[in-house]
Design brief:
This protein is mainly beta. It has two domains: 44 residues, no CATH class; 301 residues, Fucose-specific lectin (Neuraminidase, 6 Propeller), CATH 2.120.10.70. Strands 14, 15, 16, 17 and 18 form a five-stranded antiparallel β-sheet that branches. The protein has a four-stranded antiparallel β-sheet with strand order 6-7-8-9, with no helix packed on it. A hairpin with a 2-residue loop joins strand 1 and strand 2. The longest helix is centred in the first third of the chain and has 34 residues.
């Protein structure tokens, strides 16, 4: 059969002997595949570069505040005020008068957060002065107990004078010795009690009175010994504190450890001086043990005043007198974890508890005072606070917490 060159070759020649087919990658022509790979790489690189630039700008923007924006200052606590009372400080409130002369003004003595002793005068109108330190020489242990008395030392004169007013503040110094600071003519001076090297029980509270002997005012101070019994310690008529059987003795009154301690002084209708010592005994009862200078009597057996439910951490008393004879006694006390309670005594009815708290959630200490006008004030710290607040008993027999604060 003749061969024709313009004739299409048979199919078997095309499939078997023709040029090889072109290779593919992932089902794509090689050229298309590599074009796609290049495009993807360029996109990834561009995205990475763009993200880095944007992140850098944001970082710089957050590090460098905008001139139009207000910077938020970092809050820092102000330095503590050295005159601020420490939480749980003991309180004592001597009036600017004595046993026979009531006064309208008084001072509130407390311990500050720096452990220094401070006082603030509360004036007749209820306003209080800025606190002042007793002085650098009066260093006290942390949480020192406090007590105070005021009396006039007339030095032979017949009429009391302002310059003759003495105020004694009792405390435990930084060596735990019983000490006193004395205010005379507006100047605080160290007393001589520190020289006796008396170290009371470390959880003791303090109380003090003025007892008159041969027309001379004699300070007596009360504390608790380690065995729980109350110790009384007096100053001799010579003006010096003396450690002898005539000026120091144990009262047969055993109190709970760290019990509140308070006293009451008056003169009975016969003219005999009387003393009452209040505290909590181990069975929980607040009791009174009384003393009279009437011959042949002396100390009475203690008797219950009120059955407290919890430990009594502090006690304070005020006495309303008529011709120096007690007509009414108010006893303030603070139970552990509770509020400030009030007990009242009258000659006609005896002791009774006031139903309501004066303050709920008291900080643990209380000091009360009554001025010549019959106004009763109680000072305390509320809850976990440090500010010393004042409650005043109104004419309607209701307590009002005033705006007057100390610290």
């Amino acid at each position: 059969m003749p061969w024709h060159t313009n004739t299409k070759p048979p199919d078997y020649l095309t499939t078997i002997g023709g040029p090889p087919p072109k290779r593919k990658l992932c089902g794509l022509k090689r050229r298309c595949f590599w074009v796609i790979i290049v495009v993807v790489v360029i996109v990834v690189i561009a995205a990475a570069v763009t993200g880095g630039v944007v992140g850098s700008r944001k970082a710089n923007s957050s590090a460098t505040p905008d001139s139009n924006s207000k910077a938020t200052p970092t809050a820092s606590a102000p330095p503590p005020n050295p005159t601020s009372p420490q939480h749980g400080t003991a309180l004592t409130v001597p009036v600017l008068g004595d046993n026979t002369t009531a006064a309208d003004a008084h001072i509130v003595v407390y311990q500050s957060i720096s452990h220094e002793l401070f006082y603030s005068r509360v004036n007749a109108d209820g306003s209080s002065d800025m606190p002042s330190a007793l002085g650098d020489e009066f260093k006290a242990i942390p949480n020192t107990p406090l007590a105070a008395i005021a009396f006039t030392d007339n030095s032979g004169t017949t009429l009391p004078t302002v310059s003759a007013l003495h105020i004694h503040v009792f405390y435990l110094d930084n060596s735990s010795f019983l000490s006193d600071a004395v205010l005379i003519n507006g100047v605080w001076r160290p007393g001589t009690l520190r020289l006796q090297n008396i170290v009371p029980y470390n959880e003791t509270k303090l109380a003090a009175i003025i007892w008159v002997e041969n027309n001379l005012p004699i300070p007596w101070i009360y504390s608790q010994a380690e065995n729980g019994y109350v110790i009384e310690y007096g100053r001799a008529m010579s003006g010096r504190w003396m450690k002898d059987e005539n000026s120091s003795s144990t009262i047969d009154l055993r109190l709970s450890p760290g019990s509140g301690l308070a006293t009451c002084y008056d003169i009975d209708e016969k003219g005999f001086q009387r003393l009452k010592v209040y505290g909590q005994i181990p069975d929980g009862a607040i009791v009174s043990r009384d003393y009279t200078e009437e011959a042949g009597k002396g100390w009475s057996e203690y008797y219950p005043v009120y059955q407290a439910e919890k430990a009594v951490k502090d006690i304070s008393t005020v006495t309303k007198r008529s011709n120096m004879t007690a007509e009414e006694i108010t006893l303030f006390f603070v139970q552990e974890g509770g509020g400030m309670d009030e007990l009242g005594w009258t000659k006609a009815k005896g002791w009774a508890k006031v139903p309501e708290y004066i303050v709920e959630g008291s900080g643990g200490k209380v000091a009360a005072v009554q001025d010549s006008r019959g106004i009763t004030r109680a000072y305390f710290q509320e809850g976990n606070g440090t500010v010393i607040k004042e409650a005043v008993l109104g004419a309607d027999s209701k307590w009002v917490v005033t705006r007057n604060t100390i610290g």
